[in-house]
Specification:
Blueprint lengths: L11 E4 L2 E8 L2 E9 L11 E7 L2 E5 L2 E5 L4 E4 L7 E5 L3 E9 L8
Antiparallel strand pairs: 1-2, 2-3, 3-9, 4-7, 4-9, 5-6, 5-8
Length: about 110
């Protein structure tokens, strides 16, 4: 068993209202992300696979929205037809994402 010690990894802020810690082995990435209500609204068309650890947020899509809370998992396919934006409901939201280096960007 291998433990990821997120406490030993420094926070980085790719944009206002978002900070993350990245653990990477080869092309596989675990990204612990913290969103606050200060996050600038932005649309994203990247795919995401993740789990909400703490807090509540709404994922807005062009076709509607869905609410997520602690324990909820999410899968958002990549592509403009799945464009989305996260809107924190609680002051802070913590999520854990599983990513691949080929699709990772510095955006939230």
């Amino acid at each position: 068993m291998y433990r990821v010690d997120f406490d030993a990894i420094a926070w980085h802020s790719p944009m206002a209202g978002v900070r993350h810690k990245i653990y990477q082995v080869e092309s596989r990435i675990l990204r612990l992300v913290e969103y606050s209500r200060d996050m600038l609204p932005h649309w994203c068309d990247k795919g995401h696979i993740g789990h909400i650890v703490e807090g509540r947020l709404t994922i807005e899509l062009k076709t509607g929205s869905e609410h997520f809370g602690p324990g909820d998992a999410l899968f958002i396919p990549a592509g403009s037809e799945h464009a989305h934006r996260a809107v924190p409901i609680t002051p802070l939201v913590t999520a854990l994402f599983v990513e691949d280096e080929s699709v990772r960007s510095e955006s939230a």
